[in-house]
Request: fold
Amino acid sequence: MTDHSGLRLVALKCQKCGSLLNADTKDIVFYCGNCDSGFELINEKDELVPVNIDFAIPVKKMNAEVVYYPFWVFDANIKIISRDAAGSITGFIMNIFGKEDKNVGKFYIPAFETPLENLRKLGLEFSKAQPEFEVIKKGKLKGCTYSSKDAMKFADFIFLSIEAAKSDTLRSISYDLGLSSPKVIAIPFYKVSGSGLVDGIMGNQY
Reply:
């Protein structure tokens, strides 16, 4: 539906069951608590497209309030086409995924608003750890303000920041991160009084 200003209005209703989607103003990913369906608002098309949304079950147990923060998670298949540097070209995948296998790994990118350095830190720590956890469907997800396309740009930022931090002198690089199968996983964090947040998967403090 288009109003008189030329803007197109998108009804925030679940396309599977018709329920209203509960969301905050800036959200662009929505979870239907009625039928557990997920949707991403694609601005280029002004339409909701299906996306899988899961909630990670805490691995670390703490006696504190749990809040869930959404992450975009991609399958990654990194290919370095060319890299011109003074030193060694090895170790670029090790720095992200913890091992030298380009075909393994999930690339984690925070989907919520957070300072850029915190986004880089969270994305790198989860991507390198490749944590194992079980998932469930849950009743509510809010705060997913970055699109899958935004997340891909952030993945480039994280990758290039690692390359730039290496001891050799990087003159040029051509690569393909090979990100595919985007989904959203809500990661549990504990609110710890006086200590900020502690993630419920690896136990890191932020």
About this structure: The longest helix spans residues 148-164.
